[in-house]
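Let's practice the habit of predicting before peeking. Look at the sequence and jot down your guess about where helices and strands might fall. Then scroll down.
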Amino acid sequence: MKYLATLLVFIVFSCSLTKKHSKVNDVKLEALLSSNSNVYASSIRKEDLNKDLSILASDEYEGRETARPGQKKAAKFISERFKEIGIEPGAKNGSFLQTFPVDAKNAANVFIELNGIKWNLLEQFYYVGDLKDTLLIDKELIFAGFGIEEGNYSDYSNINVKNKVVIINEGVPDLIDLTGGWDNWRKKVELAKNKGAVGIITIKKNFTEGVERIAGYIENPNMQMHNPGRKKSELIPNLFISDSAAKTILSEINESKVSIKVDIQEELTSDNVLGYIEGTDLKEELVVITAHYDHLGYDNGEVCNGADDDGSGTVSVIELAEAFQKAKNDGHGPRRSILFMTVSGEEKGLWGSKYYIDNPIYSIENTVVDLNIDMIGRRDDEHDYDNYIYLIGADRISMDLHLISEKVNKKYINFDIDYTYNDRKDPNQFYYRSDHYNFAKKGVPVVFYFSGVHKDYHKPTDDVDKINFDKVQKTVRLVFYTAWEIANRDQRLRMNGID
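Done guessing? Here is the structure:
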């Protein structure tokens, strides 16, 4: 019995020592991780951020408009920087680029020639509707009244419009009672098409007012994210002319020939740029860090460099990639994998992040978090000091993420965290307006790092010389510490629901 009692005391004492030893090891491990994180956080330097941004937000990059040459130059620059850093390509087939299709329209590319004489768009004619590309050469013209057919009334009786361009009056005849809604131009176009016409020209009563209303659309090319299921337009060319132009045509209608060319469709591509660091023992799980690198291109001939929006976020992602790669090179790589993704198409409607979410290269189910950086280089009108950051969305899906953000900031950075835009009732609704939201829709916890809107937002004056690089450096280090904590902790972030 005495031996048994002694043995029990020894076991209890040993367990106590083991627990104490384990606790000491945990403390040492946390201290080691903290020490390592400080080393690599300090490698994030404002001089490097400035150097990259001075290139990316220069006039040479033409405002980085989605699917345009400036965006392609920026994608190449980011890819080359990732390659210099030494991180792996994050897309398929050993590439840094995830390319997606874009449909563009240059609405000004509609041309008319009457008897070999070119007419000027918005001076002698304009058009409405979503036209398809068309080429009509030397087509006959034919007048068809108001272009109406209802009951016993028909402007198409006794005329053959097949393979011809129809000229009609706007509106309806005064003395005839019609109920079919013929003030709708689409109805008249559909009827002319069904009769075999290949184009329709309407004599517009208030031509100048019509030009003023439609000019903005025609003068500004637009894009859509490519959707193979989207129904293509089947409209025939639908043109409006003035009374004076109509007199010229109608006076010589039997001898006249018209040519119409519609060449507005353009098939383009855009790109997300992805760099990847594989984790050590939890490599199936993924931390994503995002920023959009596209901007507006030109505004009335002036290049919009988008230094803050979102050049500041883009160079932040590059600098974060470099810091984590240095850690990996030194044998302190993250336990979870990290995807550094700069996306394009944000300015058009969050296209790049949507394309990635719809075509993920890495499992969305195993994506632990998205840390999104958008406009962190300036001070907004709501603050008279720089030591603040807006955090948006951290508590929406995972309260763990919110608590980690608070803890990391208090321990390392000491920003004043402003949650104004995290309020669900805030009228700006920034939670839905940057690339993190496409991840949030899939239930991935997100944080949106943001410094607010300023007077140069979306203007040609958003230039590098106005960026506060001390503020950018401090914000990037906050993102680094947060990513480091999430990438190296034992457990995934716990969910508190999807919003």
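How did you do? Confidence is low (pLDDT under 50) at residues 1-29.
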